[in-house]
Design a protein that fits this description.
Oligomer: single chain
Number of domains: 2
Strand order of the largest sheet: 5-6-4-3-7
Structural class: alpha+beta
CATH architecture of the largest domain: 2-Layer Sandwich
Largest sheet: 5 strands, mixed
Shape: elongated
CATH class of the largest domain: Alpha Beta
Length: about 120
């Protein structure tokens, strides 16, 4: 059975240049995006997790997979916290919102044009 040929989305890794920047498609050492480059592009889906580990049984909602960095991530976190009426923080390019706010966050992020999935139970 012959293998089907798929259209390639671009070079991901090459031994010639090493890892490539997801925005400008240049070697990471030669990247012109600078600080505007997102930490990771992922699959384009924002995932909402509920977590209680290490927090004394209190729940937090984690927003993972946002293709934002720096000030853009901070401003979105501020808007989400205001929308839910709770506090939160940013750790490792992940927004933490106090309480189980997955339904509210899903609606707000979808209104902003993101594809959102509620992960876990």
């Amino acid at each position: 059975m012959p293998k089907s040929k798929k259209a390639s989305g671009g070079l991901v890794y090459s031994t010639d240049r090493g890892r490539l920047c997801p925005q400008c498609q240049r070697a990471v050492a030669e990247c012109v995006c600078g600080k505007a480059r997102p930490a990771s592009v992922g699959d384009g889906i924002v995932r909402l997790h509920r977590e209680t580990k290490g927090r004394g049984g209190k729940a937090v909602t984690l927003v993972k997979g946002l293709p934002l960095a720096g000030d853009e991530l901070k401003s979105l976190a501020k808007i989400l916290k205001q929308r839910c009426g709770v506090g939160g923080s940013i750790k490792d390019n992940c927004i933490e919102i106090q309480g189980d706010q997955r339904a509210t966050l899903k609606q707000e992020l979808e209104n902003r044009g993101y594809r959102v999935k509620i992960a876990g139970s």
